[in-house]
Amino acid sequence: MPDPNEPIDAEIVPDPVAPPPPAVPDPDYDDHGVPSFDFVRDKIEGRYATSIGTQELADETTQGRTVAEQEAERERAAKAKLDEIRRSLG
Q1: pLDDT tens digits along 27-44
Q2: Alpha carbon 33 to chain centroid distance?
Q3: What Å distances lie between residue 75 and 4, 16, 28, 84, 90, CA to CA?
Q4: pTM (two decimals)
């Protein structure tokens, strides 16, 4: 009977490598890599919604309100100047 403390001489067998899963085409693209209309539309709508949200958040800041007030003051001044020019012309 072999000694239980004696190392066992054995061959090391590498783990079998599983083959990669078959490539499944992305449902948003065709076989030639062209995106679908729905995919493009969703991407554009997402970017548009993000830009609208960003603008709304920017308008809620103190600086955003200050800019809006400056624009309103310019509009009032421009209207007053235009009215003055119209009155001077008769």
Answers
A1: 888 888 899 999 999 999
A2: 21
A3: 96, 75, 47, 14, 23
A4: 0.46
